[in-house]
Amino acid sequence: MHVTNVGGSLTTAVCLSLIAWSVRVLRSAKHRDRARQRTTSSAAPTVKLNKQTYGVLSPKAFWMLVQTNPVPYLLLDVRPESKEDGGAVSKLCERLNVTHVLPEELANLLRNRSTLWAKRFPNIPMPNLRTTLIFVSTHGHSSSHAAALATSLGFTRCSIVDGGLAAAVPIAHFDEVDAMSPVRDGTLSLDAVQLLLETVRDDGNLLGLVILDIRRFDERSLYGSIEGSTHIPVDNLPKALGMNDEEWVRMFRFLKPTADNLILLHSRSPSAAAWAKQLFSDAGLHNCHCYVDGAFSGPDGDVRSYEAYEEGGAPPEPVKLGRAFNRMNAERELLDLRIQFRV
Q: Whole-structure pTM over 0.85, yes or no?
């Protein structure tokens, strides 16, 4: 039987078939891309970058954090894969043993952390909404987006490094352990604190004294507090110090300290006190001193102290100090620090 190609050659028919097949393949690929974009958009919500939604650590404050561990934290490297090179920043990341998360995976990982986190990072505890998250990238651009995204998902203690890891490299290179180690030198004694409180009671706080209790909630509730103190846990400070006056009052119900105030930070941890003092200094509040002790007055009026303990651990029994107020030592101490007091 003889078959005749009516209306054109066989080659033309094949070409037309290939063109039609190619169009179908291209349309299918385009539909898949659109579906992928819709999925990505829903997984990574658009957020407005705003420094007031997360903390910004100076390179020195960041390095104090990783060297002295004043608070528990999780260090998340959100550099894109193309930025992972063998340079100084990558070496610093290896030194700090950071947890690397690709920017495009972050939203899905944090939102579905109950099912995804243990599979991805089996040896790292899953973060909760109160975990201190420190996002790092080379120059801070990716980390800013990541911190804003995490904040929009409900994580309340997010921070970045001002200038990124590139700004921290010089400090890490010339790191001196002694310079970063928290010490008790320069902190106020109980005698000095008692003299300050006496001065405030007598002159109506002409000193402008602001006592900030930066201990945990459990410490303050279990062991009491200094007379007239207000409370901000130390891990809230990076974000809090970036707030304006109105936001501060709305959040903490008292006026934000200024450069005119004499600030006393009350902590039981020397490393937490030193880190908090650095944060205040970075915010321009340099008239800041630390009281590193847990002393408080019991029901009988006797002054007691307690040993530092980890959150979730068994609270220690308070111990009576059993010593009298030494006014002469207190006056000498405050004079050395150029702090005014009532004679």
A: no
